[in-house]
Design brief:
The chain is of the alpha/beta class and about 230 residues long. It has seven helices and seven strands, in the order ββααααβαββαβαβ. It is about 35% helix and about 15% strand. The longest helix is centred in the middle third of the chain and has 19 residues.
Length: about 230
């Protein structure tokens, strides 16, 4: 599914896809920001210094990035309503599959539904989530990101994380991994960057993950792709 807000092309050929180009969150006066422009926000040198395994946590890195790239608060609620309307019209769904910014929208929705379940009579929409090179959820009130070093709450449904060893935005997928329940999360690594790889071996590994989940038919199951 496409996001509800228009977006310019990425500006990076290897990440380009067919139009329409959309995003899931309202970026306000940063609406014309491209993937290429992301690196022009005085972040390139910082990202080079803050590489995995060099003593800087993914959470510390993404907090700095989020200062320049945070969505507008009202846009978060709009996006959740948009996703819920699609679910009501086209669901039910067994799981959600999301990549990059789509993973922000999907994981935020999972947390929102999880909190609704705790508050009253509400049944969760999804049995699992599959994230490709994703990013962590945002707080519903727009006050920041939902990060593991700031809260003990975790996404509890089974999640599968397909991450790239050469992803320049490694801190996104790592912080998303960290906010998911350790006992129900699965990690699949590939040798590429910030992309959704397409190969038979990867598909087999994802199917193996799905087979561990009760009540999911890997032949007839239905997923919301974000």
């Amino acid at each position: 599914m496409d996001g509800p807000f228009p977006s310019p092309p990425s500006g990076v050929p290897e990440y380009e896809c067919r139009p329409p180009h959309c995003r899931f969150f309202d970026m306000g006066d940063r609406a014309d920001l491209t993937f290429e422009g992301f690196y022009d926000l005085s972040l390139n040198d910082m990202l080079k210094r803050m590489s995995p395994g060099e003593g800087t946590s993914a959470e510390e890195v993404i907090r700095q990035v989020h200062k320049s790239l945070s969505p507008l608060p009202h846009g978060i609620l709009f996006t959740l309503d948009y996703l819920r309307s699609v679910i009501e019209e086209e669901g039910p769904f067994d799981g959600v599959i999301a990549a990059s910014e789509g993973a922000v929208a999907a994981s935020t929705l999972l947390l929102y539904e999880q909190q609704r379940c705790k508050e009253g009579d509400y049944s969760p929409t999804f049995k699992c989530g599959i994230f490709f090179v994703g990013f962590p959820p945002v707080k519903i009130d727009g006050t920041g990101l939902f990060l593991s070093d700031e809260t003990d709450e975790r996404i509890t449904i089974p999640t599968c994380h397909v991450n790239g060893r050469r992803d320049p935005l490694w801190f996104g997928s790592e912080t998303l991994w960290n906010v998911c329940e350790p006992s129900s999360r699965t990690l699949i690594m590939h040798e590429e960057g910030h992309i959704v790889p397409q190969n038979a071996e990867l598909v087999i590994k994802i199917l193996d993950f799905l087979r561990t989940i009760d009540q999911i038919d890997t032949q007839a199951g239905k997923a919301l792709v974000v």
